[in-house]
Amino acid sequence: MAPKTIAIINMKGGVGKTTLTWNLAQHLFSNHDKKVLIIDLDPQANATVLGLSEEEFKEHKQNKKTIADLFINCYRKYGPFPKPKSGTIVDYKDYIFRREVSIDKQAYLDLVPSELDLSAVLKGAYIDPFMLENVLGLPYFNKYEYILIDCAPTNSILTTLSLNAAKKILVPVMADTFAVYGVELMQEVLRQHKEDFNVEVGIIGLVFMRWEEKKANQQEFKEKIVAAWGGTTFRNSIRNNDWYKIANGRRTDISQSAAHDEVKREFTAFTREFIEKTE
User: Fold this and answer.
1) How many whole angstroms separate alpha carbon 204 and alpha carbon 10?
2) What is the pLDDT of residue 80?
């Protein structure tokens, strides 16, 4: 069975996108025994920083490859890089960093790291907009149940690759002044993408991040954003809590931190809702 491939995306930065990706992947693996792959498709490489220590990243670079290497060495047919030799065989295991594995080895959490060089690799080079879709459509990736693509907060070839590969998106958003414009921009990106590539991108829903119940105007902003979006919104919001930052710094997820049970239950409920919406 093909994996459920979801792009986690917002055209606005600083909304907790990578925190959402990381914690969701961890919960799917540890709480639901899922086989999960994170693809870090952001040149800022925040998901990679959460997933690998500096030593682990150096070792990975010495022995394996990042998403930037995939674009350089494997599929580029035009631009300043040489055309791959006929019959080149790509071993996708070379790109995978195994972050977690269950005792019975029936569930695991893997990561395809990114790096800052990704921007330089992509600059001025032609890339087939369906390249990532073709890669993830190979039998090798059928072993995963979920593939989560952590996207850059810009409309670029990376956005195109993500939307064509996933065809479903999860949109983290904050209830603030700029979010209404942000969701309208996201809608325009999806409309333009369909016009350009004839790909109808499915929407799992908006999820409100860094929610502060007592903060002035939170509910008012939320209502405006939901009205502007006009689509599905998750019942469960993710509150603003410093334990997420602490867990990120320790390369773990909120459920393994010392956060209050109420905070942990909140993300557990969100993950269950996510599974319901995707399965």
Assistant:
1) 13
2) 46
